[in-house]
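Q: What structure does this chain adopt?
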Amino acid sequence: MSTRPVKHSLTLRGHRTSVSLEPEFWDEFRRIAAARGQALNALAAEVDAGRGDIGLASALRLFVLQDLRRRAGQL
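A:
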């Protein structure tokens, strides 16, 4: 079961922001960034650029979920 969201600071396009996600989502987001050879801020900026009108935390969760589903289909 997930624990309480944890706030982390990110820099997106030169601006500091904070995002609260459950530790499990942070762990997966870090794993994805590492697998892509990207810095966490760079991957977050990529997600931010394509998120439309949803909040950044929701966009990050959906990004992680989509990656997990994509990987599950490859197993």
